[in-house]
Write a structure and sequence with these properties.
The structure is a single chain. By secondary structure, the protein is α+β, with helices and mostly antiparallel strands. It has eleven helices and four strands, in the order βαβαββααααααααα. It folds into two domains: 76 residues, Glutaredoxin (3-Layer(aba) Sandwich); 106 residues, Glutathione S-transferase Yfyf (Class Pi), Chain A, domain 2. Strands 2-1-3-4 form a four-stranded mixed beta sheet, with helices on one face. α1 runs parallel beside α3 and α1 packs across α9. The mean pLDDT is 96. The chain binds glutathione. The site of glutathione has 9 residues, from α1.
C-alpha cells in the first residue's frame, strides 16, 4: 500500500474531520503539521503547489494529492479497507456534510472578543499579516488578494450584529436538525457511522470549545448529548486528536 501523509494543523476543524475518517477506516498514516497560525506555512510556495487554496488539510496517497475536506474523506473511504463510511441515503449524508462545512466557524470563534466598535483585533492583525505575505510572495498575488478580500468581508460581518446573529442562528438551526435526526438513530445520516458523523463530531467539538454546548446541555437536547458522549467514547476520538477544550 502507498504511503499516506496528511498535511494538517492540530486544531483545524477540517483537519479533525479528515483525521476522524482516517481513524474510523483504521488507516496508518503520517502527519505533517502546517503551521497556519504562527509561521503561516500554508503560504509557502511548496505547500501552495500542493494545495492551491493554501489551506489544510491536504492528503497524499503515494503520488496522489487530494485537497478539499469533502473530497479527502470520500477518497479515504474509497481507497482503504475497513468499514464503509457511506450510508444508503448518500444524498442526505452529503447534504449534511455540506451544511456543516458551510457554517461560518470564524464568526463563532471571534464574535465574543470584539472591541466596543465591533472590531476583532485578531482579524485586523490577520489582515496585516496577509498584506505582509502579499509583499513576500508576489507570485501568489491572486490567492493573497482574494484572502485579503475575504478578511475584509469577515470584518464587515463582525461589525454587523444582525449578520453575526444570522450566522449564529444558522448554527443553532443545524444543532436543531441534528437533534431531530438523532431521535431515531445513533448516527446523524442513517443507521451506521458515516462521513457525516466525522463532520458532526468535529463541529460539535468546535461548538463545545466556544461554549455553545449550552445549546444542548442541561437536558436541552438529550439526543445530541447522548450522541456527543458516544462519539467521544469511540477510539477514533482520541486517535484523531479531536480538540474540544
Ligand atoms: N474548503 C476547504 C477549507 C479548508 C480550510 O478553510 N482550512 C482552514 C483550517 S480549518 C485553513 O487552512 N485556514 C488557513 C487560512 O485560512 O489561512 C476544505 O474543505 O479543505
Amino acid at each position: 500500500m502507498a504511503d499516506v501523509l496528511l498535511y494538517d494543523y492540530p486544531g483545524s476543524i477540517c483537519s479533525q474531520m479528515a483525521r476522524l475518517a482516517l481513524a474510523e477506516k483504521g488507516v496508518s498514516y503520517t502527519r505533517q503539521t502546517i503551521d497556519i497560525m504562527k509561521t503561516h506555512e500554508q503560504f509557502e510556495p511548496w505547500y501552495v503547489a500542493l494545495n492551491a487554496k493554501a489551506v489544510v488539510p491536504t492528503l497524499r496517497i503515494g503520488d496522489e494529492i487530494i485537497t478539499d475536506t469533502i473530497n479527502i474523506v470520500h477518497r479515504v473511504d474509497a481507497a482503504f479497507d475497513g468499514p464503509a463510511l457511506i450510508v444508503p441515503d448518500a444524498a442526505r449524508m452529503q447534504d449534511l456534510m455540506a451544511r456543516i462545512m458551510g457554517l461560518h466557524y470564524g464568526v463563532l470563534l471571534y464574535c465574543d472578543g470584539l472591541t466596543h466598535d465591533r472590531t476583532s483585533p485578531t482579524i485586523v492583525a490577520r489582515g496585516e499579516l496577509l498584506a505582509a505575505q502579499l509583499k513576500q510572495h508576489p507570485e501568489h498575488a491572486k490567492l493573497l488578494k482574494s484572502r485579503l478580500e475575504g478578511n475584509r468581508r469577515f470584518q464587515a460581518i463582525l461589525k454587523d450584529a444582525d449578520e453575526v446573529e444570522a450566522h449564529l442562528q444558522n448554527t443553532r438551526d443545524l444543532v436543531d436538525a441534528l437533534e431531530t435526526a438523532l431521535a431515531h438513530s445513533d448516527f446523524v445520516a442513517g443507521d451506521s457511522y458515516s462521513l457525516a458523523d466525522c463532520f458532526a463530531t468535529a463541529a460539535l467539538a468546535r461548538f463545545h470549545k466556544h461554549g455553545f454546548d449550552i445549546w444542548w446541555e442541561d437536558g436541552l437536547k438529550p439526543n445530541i448529548h447522548r450522541y456527543y458522549m458516544a462519539m467521544k467514547a469511540r477510539p477514533s476520538w482520541s486517535a484523531a486528536g479531536v480538540v474540544e477544550g
